[in-house]
Design brief:
By secondary structure, this protein is of the alpha+beta class. It has helices at about 25, 35-50, 65-80, 95-110, 120-130, 155-170, 175, 235-240, 335-340; strands at about 10-15, 55-60, 85-90, 115-120, 140-145, 180-190, 195, 200-205, 220-225, 250-255, 265-275, 275-290, 295, 300-305, 310-315, 320-330.
């Protein structure tokens, strides 16, 4: 497919605060410095430029990414590195998740053909939450810079940039470049309050939000999963080590936990955070069919979405979890590179 005649533009959302929750302290998790995040951005920019993307929209921030990136771009352009035209969105950063919501909306309105996301599960969830309510489908490409990172894959940013560039310039079609993804819809009292999760919705017996990150297993009641990979770190590892389920496989998984010896069927050692292996008691697990609501069998507690406490509920509240398939697209980096290489898209004229 020839490149599109209109000017290709992509967006980049880089969260300067990802990987700075309590798990960094209690589990010795890594914490990327601003300079590391800027270097990732620079590699994305040079590779999308090499694929012919002339314009990139970037979310501004107060955490230092914008200032350092601008200095690096000026210095490296003097060294004759090729970059696209970088434009920071016209918005005032608040250093809250509202920045991600607004930046995603502005990028979609500006015609971005894909959005590269630097962050953890929470950042990716915020981007998807905004995109699924829009009138135009925009795929995301995730780069892992958070703590547990079950959703964004660990991948060299240069390769992600190449794949995004191939798609954005029309060298690969949507059918070739994109993959469908599942998500969980969480609803309280038939939509009175609702939210989504990309990987896991965890029900905890704790009554308060407090520190948003969830890392104590003794309070866990049940775990609902879109996919469950044995090599994952985080609460989705409970399902992955119990009953593996792939990202592209149909259905989800509901795991019911209990430390009561009378109800517990298995004991599982799960890596719930970097360097943190904890024992979890398993009562049972059930498959989740798409579109079938699961009602939470707990009178009061908190729902954690992709590892962060978000929704508290009390006695009398009705909490349901529903799996949705084909909910949003992502750039399938491995498939993009395989197809492009086989088609000779990287070969230059002799």
């Amino acid at each position: 497919m020839p490149p599109s005649t209109s000017e290709p533009v992509i967006g980049i959302i880089a969260n300067p605060a990802s990987a700075r929750d309590i798990r960094r302290i209690v589990a010795n998790a890594s914490n990327l410095q601003i300079a590391d995040r800027v270097n990732i951005l620079l590699r994305v920019l040079t590779t999308v430029a090499a694929m012919g993307v002339p314009r990139v929209l970037v979310m501004p921030d107060k955490g230092g990414i914008r200032a350092m990136l601008q200095r690096h771009l000026k210095r490296e352009q003097n060294l004759h590195h090729a970059f696209p035209r970088v434009e920071f969105l016209e918005m005032e950063p608040t250093s809250t998740v509202d920045d991600t919501f607004l930046a995603t909306s502005l990028m979609r309105e500006a015609g971005a053909r894909a959005i590269v996301v630097l962050g953890g599960d929470g950042t990716h969830r915020a981007v998807v939450r905004e995109l699924i309510h829009g009138d135009r489908e925009v795929p995301i490409a995730g780069l892992s810079t958070g703590t547990n990172n079950a959703f964004p894959e660990m991948r060299e940013s240069s390769i992600t940039g190449l794949a995004v560039g191939l798609f954005a310039t029309g060298r690969l079609t949507s059918e070739q470049a994109l993959a469908p993804n599942k998500l969980l819809e969480v609803s309280i009292n038939d939509g009175e309050r609702k939210d989504i999760a990309l990987v896991d919705a965890v029900i905890s017996t704790e009554r308060f939000i407090g520190a948003r990150a969830l890392w104590k297993t003794e309070s866990l009641h049940s775990v609902f999963l879109t996919f469950a990979e044995p090599q994952a770190i985080g609460l989705s590892a409970i399902g992955g080590l119990l009953h593996p389920l792939g990202r592209t496989e149909p259905g989800g998984l509901a795991v019911h936990l209990s430390d009561d010896p009378a109800r517990r069927r298995w004991r599982l050692a799960a890596t719930i955070a970097p360097g943190m292996v904890r024992e979890v008691g398993i009562e049972r697990f059930d498959p989740m069919l798409a579109g079938q609501p699961f009602q939470v069998a707990l009178q009061s507690g908190v729902v954690a979405l992709d590892g962060e406490r978000e929704l508290a509920f009390d006695a009398g509240d009705r909490v349901t979890i529903t799996l949705r398939e084909n909910a949003f697209p992502t750039v399938d980096v491995a498939r993009c590179m395989q197809i492009a290489a086989a088609a000779g898209l990287f070969r230059l004229p002799s």
